Amino acid sequence: MDKSGIFVGSVIGAVIVVVIFAVLFVSPSVSLKPDIVVSNENTPNALAETSPVYSKLSLIEIFEKSESGVVRVNVQRNGTGEGIGGVGSGFVFDKKGHIITNAHVVKNAVKVAVTFLDGRSYNAEIIGTDEYTDIAVIKVNADLSLLHPLSLGDSSNLKVGEQIAAIGNPFGLSGSMTSGIVSQLGRLLPSGSGYSIPDVIQTDAAINPGNSGGPLLNMRGEIVGINTAIQSATGEFTGVGFSVPSQTIAKIVPILIEKGEYKHPWIGIAGRDIDPDLAKVLNLKDAVGFLVVTVVDNSPASKAGLIGSEKTIEIEGVKYPMGGDIILSVDGIEVRKIDDILIHLQRSKSVGDEMILKILREGRTTDVTIVLQERPNGN
Fold first, then answer.
1. What's the whole-model pTM score?
2. Which residue out of 134, 204, 325, 340 is catalytically annotated?
3. Is 104 a catalytic residue?
4. pLDDT (tens digit, 9 = 90+) per residue, 174-184?
5. Is the dihedral of CA 285, 289, 293, 295 positive or negative?
6. Residue 232: its pLDDT value, please?
C-alpha cells in the first residue's frame, strides 16, 4: 500500500508541530513478525452488560455525560537541548486515580501531567505500559471530586454502521468531540512494536494527533475503544481511524495495574494467507487458511512439530512457498487468514494455555496441540 499507519499521540510545542509514529502497512497476506507474530464506580474495569437493543443518547448527552472523565495528558521527553513536550488524551478508569492512555503517548516520558476538565493539573506516575496493544496506565493523586470513571461497554456488540463518538485533545484543543460510524471491525494494525495489534476497530470519526488515548464511545456513552492511530499519508485525518477495543482494555488494564506489564501468548510462526493463486498452486479446493512458511527455533510451534515451507516454485515470475503446514482452525474456530489466529490469541488465550490447531499436511488433516509461551520482544 502507498500509505502508512500513523499513531496520533502528540502535539508538540507552542507552534503545534505534529509528532507522529509511522509504521509501514504490509500485504494482509503476510504476517509482520514470527508472532502469531456491568460496570460501576467500584468495578470500572468490568465490561458493562449491554443489551443489543437500548435507548440511544444524543451526541449532546454523550458529551455531557463523558466530558468530566476525559483528560489531557501532557508529556515531557528528553531530547537534545531542552526537553521535548507532547499532548495526548486519556480517560479516568477508577476512583483510585488510574488513567488510561496510549503507550506511545507516554513512551520515553520523563514527566507526565494530567489536566482535568476544570483546568486543575496533577503530575502522574506511569504504572504500566503494553506496547503490543498500545495501552498505558498512569496514576494521579487527584481530588476525588475530579475522578469520574467512564464505563466500559462491550466492543463485541459493535456492528459496522453503528454510530460512535470520540472525545480528546486533537492538536492540543482540549475537550473536542467528533462523531461518525464504525466502518469495520477486526482490523489488524501494524505497530512500532514489530507485532500487529489485532481486533482493532476502524472508524470514520475524525481522529487527529492529540486524540491518542481518548475514548471511543457508543451511543450509550460507554467506552468501546481507545483511539490509537490513523491511516494517512499527511499525518492528518483522511477518513480512517483506528481504536483498540474495550474487550482488550478490560483484559490488559487490570494486569498492568497489578504487575506493570502484560505477557502476550505467542506461537512462533510466520507465513502467508491462502489466496486464490496460492490455493491453485497448492491444489486446494478453497482459498482459506494460513500457510506456515517459517517456524521459529525453540518456539511453541517448533516444540509441537509444525513444519514450514521447504522450497518455493516460480510461476510467471511469481514465487510461491511449498510444503508447509496449513492451519485450518484454532480451537475449532475456522482460520480464513492470519487475523483470525491473532484475534483468538488476543481475546481468549494467555501464556501457558494450550491451543489446538487443525492443520493440513500432505493432503491429510490432523490436530496439533501447542502450549503457548510468552511473546519475545519484537524490536
1. 0.81
2. 134
3. yes
4. 888 999 999 99
5. negative
6. 54
Residues 6+ apart with CB under 8 A from 183: 160, 202, 203, 204, 240
Burial group, residue 100, by CB count within 10 angstroms (0-12, 13-18, 19+) = buried
Residue type, 317: G
Per-residue b/e over 178-212, b at no fewer than 16 CB within 10 Å?
Answer: bbbebbebebbbbbbbbbbbbbbbbbbbbbbbbbb
- 8 Å CB contact between 213 and 101: yes
- Do 250 and 239 form a contact (C-beta atoms < 8 A)? no
Most confident of 48-62, 187-201, 227-241, 322-336: 322-336
- C-alpha 114/C-alpha 73 separation (Å) is 5
- The closest alpha carbon to 134, from 292, 5, 317, 276, belongs to 5
Per DSSP, helices labelled H in the chain are 59-66, 103-106, 246-259, 276-281, 300-304, 338-348
Is residue 121 annotated as part of the catalytic site, yes or no?
no
d(CA 152, CA 149): 9
Catalytic residue, candidates 31, 66, 98, 104: 104
- Is 344 considered catalytic here? no
Q: Which residues are registered as beta bridge partners of 273?
A: 290
Catalytic residue selected from 212, 232, 246, 329: 212
